[in-house]
């Protein structure tokens, strides 16, 4: 009887230790997954990684709306400045057009800022649909949003493989929207010329993105 | 499978082996590319697979249980593990990562399967009170996550559209209601059976 009771007590103690181990493991996993229980979505975690300087793009060959070739990240065209980068596709009837109009406003503000100093804020719109977004489509998009090519570069990646690799590095996920288009995370990326993402803002927060970009430019020696 | 008719045996094996479809890439994509199919079909299927596998004679008689059973008094370890697994995969980040990283995806399959296996193994040891606590916390979690998914104006998972999130939220609340109904029916049938049986 005593032996049975002792076995039962030992079993219960073992169970408690095992349960505590499972709960501890679960808590540690959650801690790692959610950035110390602060960010519960993939996009929030991504933005935090950007704030910590842990998100960066790889070199990307693009073809611009002016039919010129250019390498993004690292770029020598604007090595003292900051880039405000968004991802678009020209056939998008909704978000990209809205983002285009926000970039038009950003363009005005960035042009005024650049006119005052030497260091530049550059806008870059990268197409997510290089198969359909040829130079003609990019140029039409540029005309529609009155893009000034000295401030705003509209471009499409030359290689689909490079584009996919960059999207993966930036943790941008593109999915079908169910109507023949795409939906993706990430809006305005404030990026250093070498490709490091410094911050990510929603489309509606373009003023904050610009304010952050100007602070970064001013802080550069 | 133990002591069952041939039809139940076939169905049991079919459920136990069902996760093998996730090895076939187009099938996996078909299910995981839709949020509702991912959460409302794949998750229960993986649990059901583990649950059914627990009834396979070779698994049931495995010596491994001699190590597991002593640390699973009253089914407490299985319930704790099951609750943690379910809670983990309700988190939007975890759901997205399971689509973007192969190791995370395989961890998801394994964790649900093991949870199902252990819950079945423990079902006879779990008292009614403990079972009620587990079902209650499961229902609370499913309903809460379901309501959050329905009410959020922005996408919580980067891999799914907003409309999919909304309908998955409705589905999770539906499953929560179904679990409550099933638990009540089971309890009522159990009480009635005990009341009718001779003293």
Give a brief outline of the structure.
The complex is a heterodimer of chains A (221) and B (199). In chain A, 44% of the residues lie in helices and 20% in strands.
Order of helix and strand elements from N to C terminus of chain A: HHEEEHEHEHEEEEH
Largest sheet of chain A: 7 strands, mixed
Helicity range of chain B: over 70%
Q: In percent terms, what proportion of residues of chain A is strand?
A: 15-25%
Terminus-to-terminus distance of chain B? 33 Å
**How large is the share of residues in beta strands of chain B?**
under 5%
The poorly predicted ranges of chain B are none
The total beta strand count of chain B reads 0
Q: What percentage of residues of chain A falls in helices of 4 or more residues?
A: 40-55%
Sum up the overall morphology of chain A in one term: elongated
| Mean pLDDT across every amino acid position of chain B | 91
Measured on Cα atoms, how large is the radius of gyration of chain B? 18 Å
How many individual β-strands of chain A?
9
Shape of chain B: globular
Overall pLDDT level of chain A? 87
| Chain pair forming the biggest interface | A-B, 33 and 28 residues
Q: What's the alpha carbon Rg of chain A, rounded to whole Å?
A: 24 Å
Order of SSEs of chain B? HHHHHHHHHH
Give, in spatial order, the strands making up the sheet with the most strands of chain A. 2-1-5-4-3-8-9
**Class from secondary-structure proportions of chain B:** mainly alpha
